[in-house]
UniProtKB/TrEMBL annotation:
One GO cellular component term: cytoplasm
UniProt protein name: Sulfatase N-terminal domain-containing protein
Natural source organism: Micrurus spixii
Cofactor requirement: Ca(2+)
Family named by the database record: Belongs to the sulfatase family.
Length: 190
């Protein structure tokens, strides 16, 4: 369902696409003031770029009108961003959706519809967004799940094409049953 929740909050698919759309508009503005084609940016010069991917983030945020949720950092980002009200996911599963927004190509171009194949080997060696930055002098790093891990990213999260170093996947098991008090993690030092 692509409608809204009570309080004006957007459906989850729309929220994910809002973040994606805001990022692409912001990135386009950076590239418009970028380098000439083929030029290399000297390391240490230019703008820093932070690309955040969040799985299953629903629209329970202050910026979408939720009266109970306090999300000041995301709300501040939203207040300075373009909000897309009518955008759609490319595929209902993670791997093709991620490859789609990282390459700017639809799943019918990448021929990735599930998790069981590596798109570069059977559809073409398309340039990804982090690969573009890497080829233009940026150091690109992946922390967590950017590409879907496994076959669909060649068991390497698309390293070395997209990333300067192999992707880092921190363990979340340490915090699986962690106690939280008032939004803060309770640390047991025993």
């Amino acid at each position: 369902y692509m409608g809204t929740y009570p309080g004006g909050a957007m459906a989850p698919a729309r929220l994910r696409l809002w973040f994606l759309g805001a990022f692409w508009v912001w990135l386009g503005s950076l590239m418009g003031a970028g380098l000439a084609e083929g030029a290399q940016r000297p390391v240490g010069e230019g703008l820093n770029v932070l690309f955040v991917v969040a799985d299953d983030l629903r629209p329970a945020l202050g910026s979408y009108g939720d009266p109970l949720v306090r999300s000041p950092n995301i709300d501040q980002l939203a207040s300075r961003s373009v909000v897309f009200q009518n955008a759609f996911a490319q595929q209902a599963v993670c791997a093709p959706s991620r490859v789609s927004f990282l390459t700017g190509r639809r799943p019918d171009s990448t021929r990735l519809y599930d998790f069981n194949s590596y798109w570069r080997s059977h559809a073409g060696n398309y340039t990804t967004l982090p690969q573009y930055f890497k080829e233009n002098g940026y150091i690109t790093l992946s922390v967590g799940k950017v590409f879907h891990p496994g076959v669909s990213s060649n068991h390497s999260d698309d390293y070395p094409y997209s990333w300067s170093l192999p992707a880092f996947h921190p363990s979340s098991e340490k915090y699986e049953n962690a106690k939280v008090d008032g939004g803060a993690l309770v640390v047991d030092n025993q």
